[in-house]
Design brief:
The chain is an all-alpha fold. It has one domain. It has 5 helices and no strands. Helix 3 packs antiparallel against helix 4. The longest helix has 25 residues. The protein is flat. About 5% of the residues have low confidence.
């Protein structure tokens, strides 16, 4: 009986300390976890492109680099509070066109169709 009570008290303590830790905002463990996840995705993404687009490893890595650069640039645009909605849309459109231009240099038409769908060819 004493063991059950002790375990209950310890469990409650751990639960409460975990809740307060989780609510502490951006802590280094969460940021480190995000970094590990991003690093893992950078390793997995080329393999995904290799399989889904039937690419060799070199081209899959190129596509992953293009996509990573696109996503990073898109984040910059989305976080820029000085842009109007119209300015943001214009920059996003230019960014999409630039990404598509780069992908066209790497992918054949069938692969482009899988990757970009029916986007206009600017």
């Amino acid at each position: 009986m004493k063991t059950i009570i002790r375990l209950s008290i310890v469990s409650i303590f751990l639960l409460l300390s975990g809740v307060s830790f989780a609510q502490s905002g951006t802590d280094s463990l969460a940021l480190k976890g995000q970094q590990i996840q991003q690093d893992s995705l950078r390793k997995i993404r080329p393999e995904f492109y290799r399989k889904t687009l039937s690419l060799d490893s070199g081209k899959a890595a190129q596509v992953a680099e293009i996509q990573d650069a696109y996503k990073a640039a898109m984040q910059v645009i989305l976080q820029d509070t000085s842009l109007s909605q119209q300015g943001r849309r214009a920059q996003m459109g230019a960014l999409v066109n630039e990404r598509n231009r780069k992908l066209r240099g790497v992918l054949n038409p069938a692969q482009q169709q899988k990757m970009m769908g029916n986007q206009p060819t600017n």
